[in-house]
Amino acid sequence: PVMNEVSGLRNLEEELKQKMQLQEVIIVPGDSDKAPYVKKEMGRACVSRLKKLDLSQNVIAVTGGTTLAAVAEMMTPPAHGEDILFVPARGGLGEQVENQANTICAKMARKASGDYRLLHVPDQLSEEAHQSLIEEPGVKEVLELIKSAGIVIHGIGDANTMAIRRKSSPEVIETLKAKHAAAEAFGYYFNQAGEVVHKVKTIGLQLQDLENCELVITVAGGSTKAKAIEAYMKRGLKNVLVTDEGAAKALLEGS
Ligand code: G3H
How much distance in Å is there from the Cα of 215 to the middle of ligand 1? Predict the structure, then answer.
């Protein structure tokens, strides 16, 4: 039965890869909406995929969220003792501290026996304060490291869920609704066609920076996230998607 289950998932991976035109898909059993340990299994799968790379001298940019927190939880030191530097992909997005990229970045570094740099950018800044902050040498230095990241690991959220969780203003929630936002990833909101319809004002990694990365790992699962995953993946970037059976089946059932 174990073999059948494993080969069943491999078939599912192949189907999803074809349907969504992805470079690589890794599916773990279960549905993280129903069983929280499945998120940790996605974390474990992400970490083992990461370790297939030569991680020496690498800068890894990570985002926030509960899924990325599970990746951090499952992180272990690299096999060959490589030096890894972790940085948060973007500044504050309005998350609670345990879901913030900074927190996750520091935790990942500790688990990987690596190093980390943080980006201290408050969530609500005036244009003036924003401008002077990005001129600060300490902030500039971290921003350059972020731009140089060879690897990015990020989550995807359902647009509405994320806007509410981050306590976005009623105006923003209205805009997202009017523009049919479906997905959110590192502060960008996308409609079902994969177009950017809104962007949270913060500094750090920009969507176009992903094109220069050696590896982008997207970790997102749970059947309720299927629409969001589908929307984000319409962008056609060459990602590795780590997901779960719940999301994979919902994605394959959808039109
Ligand atoms: O940007 C996406 C969100 O960070 C995903 O959050 O992993 O808690 O669902 P989540």
Answer: 19
